[in-house]
Amino acid sequence: MPLSPDLEDDIERGVQMIMAEYGVSREDAIKRILRDWLTGGGYIPLDSTED
Which pTM was predicted? Predict the structure, then answer.
């Protein structure tokens, strides 16, 4: 399922900033944001092998 390009402007800017900072694609940036949010909220366990 493709990611929706219809994000609010401030969210889109945040995604673009992550893309630039980490040199990743849009899809990878959104995956990174989502993983950080899910681990931060305790929804998925922290992976001790990631930096």
Answer: 0.72
